[in-house]
């Protein structure tokens, strides 16, 4: 069995070495780079299973690197940053990260987050064939195998989490999911304070789907949660 490979992209050598030390103890293979451009090159040429990206890096920052990686790859990405405000965290998730860890960090917490993201990715890749059926409802076509979304013939670019939320709702039309349900299904973790994270993703998802007063794909059921209104 090939080892699970973790990409570490951080221009602070001490931090990169610390992450590598703890991830190696878990049995992971690590590749270290010091800038975003090199991170993109590695993902395109190596079998990377998960990436940990610092946001502020030379040559190319973590945001831009994530955008380029997401064009062809759907591996979990964890942002690592000294920016600690809620707005910074929300921005990181909107820009395509699956998780956001602030510096300074507890190495064991980072390892736990890596493990959680890898478990979730494994669950998705080994999901039953019934979950790979194409969803075609009222002008929206969602293909789980290709991870593509068409709205009235126009392809919409979604982050992995946005896609997973839409797939969850669209494959269970009219069923109401609470924010807790969505977080636990999509993030694969126990729900603690994930409500804001879910709401931010729903908001950006609606914007990308081009919702207006006559076209509401995702309906809010006040006090309960969200449902697909196809």
UniProtKB/TrEMBL annotation:
A single Gene Ontology CC term: cytosol
InterPro entries listed in its UniProt record: CheY-like_superfamily (IPR011006), OmpR/PhoB-type_DNA-bd (IPR001867), Sig_transdc_resp-reg_receiver (IPR001789), WalR-like (IPR039420), WH-like_DNA-bd_sf (IPR036388)
Pfam families named in the record: Response_reg, Trans_reg_C
Residues modified as 4-aspartylphosphate: 54
Domain Response regulatory stretches: 5-118
DNA-binding region coordinates: 132-230
Keyword annotations of the record: DNA-binding, Phosphoprotein, Transcription, Transcription regulation, Two-component regulatory system
Subcellular localization, as worded in the UniProt entry: Cytoplasm
GO molecular function ontology, one term from the record: phosphorelay response regulator activity
GO biological process: regulation of DNA-templated transcription
Coiled-coil residue windows: none
Name the UniProt record assigns to this protein: DNA-binding response regulator
Gene this chain is encoded by: vanR_1
């Amino acid at each position: 069995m090939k080892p699970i490979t973790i990409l570490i992209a951080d221009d602070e050598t001490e931090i990169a070495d610390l992450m590598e030390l703890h991830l190696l103890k878990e049995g992971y293979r690590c590749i270290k780079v010091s800038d975003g451009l090199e991170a993109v090159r590695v993902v395109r040429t190596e079998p990377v299973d998960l990436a940990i990206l610092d946001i502020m890096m030379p040559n190319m920052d973590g945001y831009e690197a994530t955008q380029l990686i997401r064009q062809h790859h759907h591996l979990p990405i964890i942002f690592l940053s000294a920016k600690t405000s809620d707005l910074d965290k929300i921005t990181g998730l909107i820009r395509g990260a699956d998780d956001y860890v602030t510096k300074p960090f507890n190495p064991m917490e980072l390892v736990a987050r890596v493990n959680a993201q890898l478990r979730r990715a494994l669950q998705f890749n080994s999901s039953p064939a019934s979950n790979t059926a194409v969803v075609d409802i009222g002008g929206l076509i969602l293909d789980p195998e290709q991870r593509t979304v068409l709205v009235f013939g126009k392809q919409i670019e979604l982050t992995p989490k946005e896609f997973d939320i839409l797939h969850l709702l669209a494959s269970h039309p009219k069923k109401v999911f609470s924010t807790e349900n969505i977080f636990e299904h999509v993030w694969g973790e126990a729900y603690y304070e994930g409500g804001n994270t879910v709401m931010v993703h729903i908001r950006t998802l609606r914007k990308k789907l081009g919702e207006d007063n006559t076209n509401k794909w995702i309906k809010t059921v006040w006090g309960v949660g969200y449902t697909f209104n196809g």
